[in-house]
Amino acid sequence: MKKIIYIFILSCFILPLLAKDYKVTGIAEFNSTVKLLQPGDKIILAKGAWKDARLVFFGEGSKDNPITLTVEEYGTTTMEGGSTLQMYGNYLVVDGLIFVNGYAPEKEVIEFRKGTSRTANNSVLRNCVIDRYNKADRTSIDSWVNLWGRNNEVVNCYFGGKTNHGVTLIVWPNGEGHNKNFHRIH
User: What is the pLDDT of residues 95-111, one digit of tens each?
Assistant: First the structure.
């Protein structure tokens, strides 16, 4: 029993002290850094326009120590051109991304999965913006936010100015692992 108590104390008090912040300035640096992330770590996108950045954010955070993707300063980091985000794993937080001046080259701007088998669970998208991020051809179909997995949350986000076909935000309930998903959108 003492061993369990010591492990609990270690995980609650010492592990957060070991968490690291990684500031990255480009997609190559992001791609190499994301592989290193541990519970409690943050990957911080530098100020400026991130053009054609196809981010794949993944990791295994914990309830008390999620892994966070955020920006150096709110409002000064933009995802432009053909930028997109895919996220998968557990206890991930995406905070402060702004998608403007472009469109998703495929169909999704933000997707809570990569491929068909790797989904995000217990993860949060917050304080994010997708503003007039439209394909030139209004009949082209895309969807801006695709929720897969379970127990994910979209909070305090703005999605506006969508002019082409397709949904703005969709919850995919089909398939094992996605039904009874308990997502929260507020």
Answer: 999 999 999 998 999 99
The pTM score is: 0.89
Residues 6+ apart with CB under 8 A from 175: none
Tens digits of residue pLDDT in 14-70: 555 689 999 999 999 999 999 999 999 999 999 999 999 999 999 999 999 999 999
Contacts of 130 (CB under 8 A, 6+ apart): 99, 109, 110, 144, 145, 157, 158, 159, 160
Q: What are phi and psi of 51, to 5 degrees?
A: -90, 130
Question: Considering Cα of 79, then 48, then 123, then 35, what sign does the dihedral take?
Answer: positive
Least Cα distance to 84 among 120, 58, 56, 59 occurs for 56
- Residue 124 pairs with which residues in a beta bridge? 93, 153
In 3D, which of 118, 112, 115, 111 has the Cα closest to residue 142?
Answer: 111
Rg (CA), the chain: 17
Closest by CA to 27, choosing from 69, 76, 60, is: 69
- The closest alpha carbon to 154, from 168, 164, 173, 139, belongs to 168
Q: Give the number of other Cβ atoms within 10 Å of residue 103's Cβ.
A: 21
The CA-based angle 120-67-31, given to 5 degrees, is 85
CA dist 170 to 109, 110, 115, 133, Å?
Answer: 12, 11, 17, 16
